């Protein structure tokens, strides 16, 4: 193992990869690492969870880079799988992203995209690289230098989470943005592989002022031999206000090489949104056979921050109309419809919703979205069944409040699906103790996917409130017999019992010490363990 890593370090010169072993501490949620700038989660089909932690320097260090953590036990423990770091004065890591594929250890591949800047203002040099990680093996599979570019943002996607079962070879792509000082224009770039991530082809997709953050999705229906790619990105972006429009490119994966002349500015269908959105996130349904209104219909969602109200921000979620069918040409503005999402969900209250992230769960055929609320310091988890997509029938999955009571303005929450457990896995960055202390990366891998078909999960269990004072409620989607036990941090049983109702209220004994506890529930042969905080 060490010899293998040394060989790769030698071949990659200034960009070393290192492997190590570490066990992050157990906290209110799973603490991953400190000095967080971004936290990305991705889960393979056999339930291995990968967390990509981007870190920025502090007063004691001038290193910046990323660390990849791996869990093979459903999120109970993590080990450090790979690390890349450089002195920030030499290389400034602007952005990272990843996607994990595979359904067993022998075919797991994690594709990590990284975007670096070298130089200084007026003499930038951008660099994009894709690293392929496999258990026990690391490899640089794509690299491109931009001699006059300043790098901005990056996104990585794949159309297959289980190579060999859906498509073999499968597609992997990375999209990134930057400023070309020679042309004095912002640019959108794309590199794609139709060979399972081995060989990549480069395209300069688009040049226009004000291109900034980007989101990439691959998906479609393999049984109908339809595969789509979609790139959503900020354009007409104003650095002063931080707002602009959301551009969209949509095409067939088999036609990656086809060039589009102009993107569709999806938000401009609604005049009040023109120039007033930011942070688009795009997601395409993948391998869904039970919701295809037309053979060329594209079940796609784009979520973005809506800043049309100067005193508050909501989320605007765009989708295609029921009549839209892809015919080989980029969609147009009239093809889009929109729903506004506010906090509390479905009301006009001010929560200042930000940072949307979308994912598609092909097992239960629905979309999940996580986002943050700045005013209430929460992360919100929502979802919609794909069959209700045209009805805009969203439901609330749950919420999380910072243990510090001080989420950063941009916690950048991320979500993926553990298909092996029927759970959603969330990652985010949180302030530690107070806003002046370093941000940390956290994950939570214990949320059952609500809204799933009956019998798919153990009653779709939820436990609330969390944190709790003197009682908690165990909520099942359907009445079902279950056994519960509550354990302290040493594993000792504090209380136990059984129930058979959809909703069971438990009173916590008065002398129970405050702190972290674990609620273990067994129902229909399945088990859920959820952390709760007594305060």
Description:
It is a single chain. Helices cover 2% and strands 51% of the residues. It is built from one helix and 35 strands. It has 535 residues and is an all-beta fold. The relative contact order is 0.09. Strands 1-28-27-26 form a four-stranded antiparallel β-sheet, with no helix packed on it. The chain has a four-stranded antiparallel β-sheet with strand order 2-3-4-5, with no helix packed on it. A four-stranded antiparallel β-sheet has the order 6-7-8-9, covered by helices on one side.
Topology diagram in text:
Layout: H1 2-12, E1 30-34, E2 36-43, E3 49-55, E4 63-71, E5 79-87, E6 92-101, E7 109-118, E8 125-134, E9 137-146, E10 149-158, E11 172-180, E12 185-193, E13 201-207, E14 214-221, E15 226-238, E16 243-252, E17 264-265, E18 277-284, E19 300-306, E20 314-320, E21 336-341, E22 353-361, E23 366-373, E24 378-385, E25 394-401, E26 414-418, E27 423-431, E28 439-448, E29 462-464, E30 471-475, E31 482-487, E32 493-499, E33 503-507, E34 515-523, E35 526-534
Number of strands: 35
Unreliable stretches covering 5 or more consecutive residues: 1-28, 162-168, 288-295, 344-349, 450-459
Biggest sheet features: 4 strands, antiparallel
Report how far apart the termini are. Answer: 45 Å
**Helix content bin:** under 10%
State mean pLDDT (0 to 100 scale). 76
* Overall spatial form: globular
Q: Strand share of the residues?
A: over 45%
Across the major sheet, the strand order is 1-28-27-26
Rg (C-alpha, Å)? 23 Å
Number of helices: 1
Structural class: mainly beta
């Amino acid at each position: 193992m060490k010899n293998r890593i040394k060989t790769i370090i030698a071949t990659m010169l200034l960009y070393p990869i290192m492997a190590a072993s570490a066990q992050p501490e157990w906290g209110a949620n799973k603490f991953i690492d400190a000095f967080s700038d971004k936290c990305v989660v991705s889960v393979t089909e056999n339930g291995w969870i990968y967390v990509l932690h981007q870190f920025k320097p502090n007063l004691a260090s001038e290193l910046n880079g990323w660390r990849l953590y791996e869990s093979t036990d459903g999120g109970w423990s993590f080990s450090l799988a790979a690390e890349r770091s450089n002195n920030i004065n030499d290389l400034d890591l602007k952005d990272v992203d990843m996607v994990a594929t595979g359904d067993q250890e022998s075919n797991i591949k994690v594709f990590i995209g990284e975007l670096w800047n070298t130089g200084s203002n007026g003499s930038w040099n951008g660099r994009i690289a894709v690293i392929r990680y496999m258990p026990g093996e690391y490899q640089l599979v794509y690299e491109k230098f931009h001699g006059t570019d300043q790098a901005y943002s990056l996104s990585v996607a794949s159309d297959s989470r289980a190579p060999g079962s859906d498509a073999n070879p499968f597609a992997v792509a990375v999209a990134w943005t930057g400023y070309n000082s020679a042309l004095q224009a912002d640019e959108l770039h794309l590199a794609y592989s139709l060979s399972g991530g081995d060989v990549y082809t480069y395209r300069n997709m688009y040049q226009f002022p004000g291109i900034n953050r980007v989101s990439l999705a691959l998906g479609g229906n393999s049984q109908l031999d339809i595969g789509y790619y979609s790139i959503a990105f900020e354009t007409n972006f104003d650095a002063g206000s931080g707002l602009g429009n959301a551009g969209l490119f949509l095409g067939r994966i088999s036609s990656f090489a086809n060039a589009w002349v102009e993107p569709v500015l999806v938000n401009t269908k609604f005049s009040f949104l023109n120039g007033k959105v930011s942070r688009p996130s795009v997601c395409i349904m993948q391998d869904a056979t039970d919701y295809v209104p037309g053979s060329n219909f594209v079940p796609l969602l784009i979520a973005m921050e809506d800043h049309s109200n100067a005193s508050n921000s909501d989320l605007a979620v765009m989708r295609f109309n029921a009549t839209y069918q892809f015919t080989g040409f980029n969609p147009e503005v009239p093809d889009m419809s929109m729903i506004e999402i506010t906090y509390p969900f479905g009301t006009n209250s001010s929560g200042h919703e930000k940072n949307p992230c979308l994912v598609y769960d092909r097992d239960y055929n629905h979309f999940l979205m996580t986002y943050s609320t700045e005013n209430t310091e929460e992360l919100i988890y929502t979802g919609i069944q794909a069959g209700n997509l045209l009805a805009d029938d969203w439901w609330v999955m749950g919420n999380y409040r910072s243990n510090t009571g001080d989420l950063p303005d941009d916690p950048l929450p991320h979500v993926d699906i553990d298909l092996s457990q029927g759970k959603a896995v969330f990652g985010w960055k949180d302030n530690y103790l107070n806003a002046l202390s370093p941000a940390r990366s956290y994950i939570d891998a214990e949320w059952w996917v609500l809204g799933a078909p009956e019998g798919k999960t153990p009653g779709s269990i939820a436990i609330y409130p969390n944190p709790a004072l003197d009682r908690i409620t165990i909520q099942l989607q359907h009445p079902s017999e279950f056994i519960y036990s509550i354990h302290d941090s040493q594993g000792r049983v504090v209380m136990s019992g059984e129930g058979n109702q959809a909703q069971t209220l438990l009173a916590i004994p008065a002398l129970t010490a405050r702190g972290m506890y674990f609620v273990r529930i067994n129902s229909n042969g399945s088990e859920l363990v959820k952390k709760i905080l007594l305060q």
